[in-house]
Amino acid sequence: MAKKKTVSKTSSNKTSIMSSVDPLVEYGRDIWLAGLGAMSLAQQESGKIGGKALEKGSKLFDQLVKEGSKLEKTTRKSVDTTADDIRGGIESRVDRVRQTAANNWDKLETVFEDRVARALGRLGVPTADEIQELINEVNHLSREVRELNKQVKGTPVSSKSAVGQTTSASKKTAKKATSKTTAKAA
Fold it and tell me: What is the pLDDT tens value at each position of the chain, 186 positions in all?
């Protein structure tokens, strides 16, 4: 029976990074093995031929070391460049994910604020703008009352006669309203 193969996101990300690095590692390993093989061959040849071969083998070994050093520098630069490219790609992906998360958080916050505002509106709780509007209206009315008080204080009419005038005017208005309502009812 065949088993189902599962791969997590983390391992797939590691796999994609490692797949970029693996060829370089393999290439470096092959070079190392070639160097070891060359050294082994030089030692074998020096043992067969004698002193001159030992000297040639030593020179060959020194030449191989120099060539290996050059190749190492070139390979190291290539690996560093590839690693920097991979690092840059990862950092840009992380930045995009952070930005997306921040945008989503802002959207969520806005949705939450809207829902709370609608719920408070359904309950009859006034908004900050409505309260400010009422404050402005109260301030306006307070100024008007102060102005009217200044005008009343400036006139020589006594307060008792002003009250009497207000009461008689109120009675006349009430009689007119009552007569209109009774006329409509009849």
Answer: 444 444 445 555 555 555 666 777 788 788 888 877 877 776 676 666 556 656 676 777 778 778 878 888 888 888 888 888 899 999 999 999 999 999 999 999 999 999 998 998 899 998 889 999 999 999 999 999 999 999 998 765 554 444 445 445 555 554 554 444 444 444
Question: In angstroms, what CA-CA distances link 80 with 16, 68, 71?
Answer: 17, 18, 14
Whether residue 170 lies inside any domain: the answer is no
Domain that holds residue 134: 127-158
User: Could you tell me the CA-to-CA distances from 11 to 7, 25, 86, 87, 140 in Å, in that order?
Assistant: 6, 19, 16, 17, 69
Give me the number of domains the chain comprises.
2
CA distances to 12, 13, 14, 15 from 6, rounded to whole Å, are 10, 14, 15, 14
What would the 3-class secondary structure string for 57-92 be? HHHHHHHHHHHHHHHHHHHHHHHHHHHHHHHHHHHH
Tokens of 23: 């060829």
169-178: long-range contacts at Cβ-Cβ below 8 A with a sequence spacing of 24 or more?
none
Give the global pTM.
0.35
What is the Cα–Cα distance from 141 to 37, expressed in whole angstroms?
Answer: 102
